[in-house]
Amino acid sequence: MDEEIRRLLGEEIKTEIQKLSSLESGSKEKSTAIEDLATLYRLRIEETKNELDFDEKYDSRVSDQLLKKEQLDEQVKDRYFRLGVEAASILLPMMFYAVWMRRGFKFEETGTYTSTTFRGLFNRFKPTRK
What we know:
Blueprint: H1 2-22, H2 28-107, H3 116-123
């Protein structure tokens, strides 16, 4: 529908321009025709401006949506990375403590902690955050 209206408006402007050449200079009819032509041309300019504004707003909306999607993707990646770091900061010390405790208990099979090395490490075997 918009294309048809634009086409009709363009044809009407062409018709008015062609009629202008057949009218006498300085006549009231010619000045009225010029005013009509100017009004039609202003309508065409306004239609073009509206179309460009619509296209610009549409492009802006699309680019904003793409930007938000990219930001959301980055936030998800960041969240998973932080979760992995948190899990590693808990699991790695626990694994370290488990290995050293097993070695220490194997070393101390008598049931007493006689070595000063294991006694000092035993105080630090708390899988908590510092």
